[in-house]
Amino acid sequence: MVIMDLPPPALAAPQRTPTLSGAAFAALDLGTNNCRLLVAARGGPGGFRVIDSFSRAVRLGEGLEATGRLSEAAMDRAVIALQACAQKLGRRQIRGLDAVATEACRRADNGAEFLARARAATGLPLRVIGAREEAALAMTSCAPLLAPTDRRALLFDIGGGSTEIAWVRAASREHPPELIGYTSLPLGVVTLAERAGASCFTHEGFEAVAEEVAAELRRFDTVHSIGREIAAGGVRMLGTSGTVTTLAGVALALPRYSRQAVDGQVIEMDAADKALAELFSLGREGLVAHPCVGPERAEFVLPGCAVFAAIRRVWPTATVTVADRGLREGMLLRLMRAPSPRRR
To answer: What CDD domains does this protein's entry cite (predicted)?
Structure first.
């Protein structure tokens, strides 16, 4: 596994806490694989317009599956990325800020210790969110993609350390979308890549991962009768993750990935299946060279595709609506809709 060459984290001093007095809002998501920041102001067709952003692969969850702990190298990389985010925020007047950590910090034995270190080094009010809040925030960001004819939505987010499934009652004139049920599987692209990544390049290994995930999904289906609801009609399948956006980029034959071209696209499942088969046929070197994948994500694509195949197997639908939006966008919308500015 390739490790980024980064300077030691002690180089940067603790950052001052961003001032919460301006017109901008900020959402920071420290995931199992990436550290991402969005800074936005009110306005625009989606309710906000992005004025700054940051994204870096930090692999915070590297080795977590085997040891149950965040490694020193992984924590160092994450702290450096968080310091870069704090520097960006320190140059702006920030009215509302939320900074969250997800599955890696939820699972790690030393997650709380790492968060204390990160807060001290950056001044950021970093907190761990639970799986339910993570699902609810994804629902908030993706709700505009629902149609008036939708009764329900099945929203999936294939993350680095986990896969979140949200079962949603669509909005009505009287009520906003409602989270009926959710489940979080400790099966994300990073954890699966570490445990079974090489085998996903074989038909047998890919099938084994897909069936493992499908078995977990069937338990959730038993509780909520989602398959029966899909058969009755009016259920939209919604996907938000690097896996589904990559599949969309391949299905659309994009010369390089474009968020504008992918976000909100409704992809026929037959086209998604063909895109998955194309990615599988490329092998590792082909994935590295593919313009919608690249070297940083090549080892994660097929584990993610195996999770998608499991979702497709348990809940067959004719189409999937692709969302290049998720946790950070939901955080921003919640901050902007709050009755008064808040610091989380």
So the answer is: ASKHA_NBD_AaPPX-GppA_MtPPX2-like
| CB count in 10 Å sphere of residue 176 | 11
- In this structure, is residue 214 part of a structural domain? yes
Same domain, 116 and 150: no
Distance CA 146, CA 152 (A): 9
How far apart are alpha carbons 146 and 171 in whole angstroms?
8
Q: Which of 59, 48, 55, 46 is nearest to 95 (CA)?
A: 48
Whether residue 338 lies inside any domain: the answer is no
β strands within 300-343, DSSP E? 319-322
Residue 158 in contact with residue 307, Cβ under 8 Å?
A: yes
- At residue 96 the predicted structure's pLDDT band, cuts being 50, 70 and 90, is very high
Q: Which domain holds residue 140?
A: 132-327
Q: Where are the alpha helices (DSSP H) in 225-289?
A: 226-232, 242-251, 259-262, 269-289
321, 236 Cβ separation under 8 angstroms: yes
Give yes or no for a contact between 247 and 305, defined as CB atoms under 8 angstroms apart: yes
Give the pLDDT of residue 115.
97
Q: Render pLDDT for 109-122 as a digit per residue (tens, 0 to 9).
A: 999 999 999 999 99
User: With pLDDT > 70 as the criterion, what percentage of the chain qualifies?
Assistant: 92
- In order of 65, 190, 283, the CA distances from 220 in angstroms are 23, 23, 33
Provide the 10 A C-beta neighbour count for residue 164. Answer: 27
* Other Cβ atoms closer than 10 A to 337: 9
